[in-house]
Amino acid sequence: MQATLEIVYRGQIGHPLTAAVVEDRELLVAVAKAAIAEAHEKADAMEEVDEFVASLQLEEAERLERVLTRLIPELQSHPKLRVLNLPTTEASPSDTEAGDAR
What we know:
By secondary structure, the chain is of the alpha+beta class.
């Protein structure tokens, strides 16, 4: 199975015109990773607006990842990297004072 990257022009009419086909595997892997990351980011951003829609978008992001991983085997060797938005803890005044005393 051969996956390629296409640069497509969509004019006012909406009919796609392939302007170029790129077969650089490293570039293909990078673009696939970017597409997966963007899909996950879109789902994460929607979470604050509508949890139901966010869950649907997360399913779509996971589906995209499965499909691209089947098309581009090099993606299997790369672990999933996701940025987690963990709550930050602010130092209490007593922690700050204890740090100053050291």
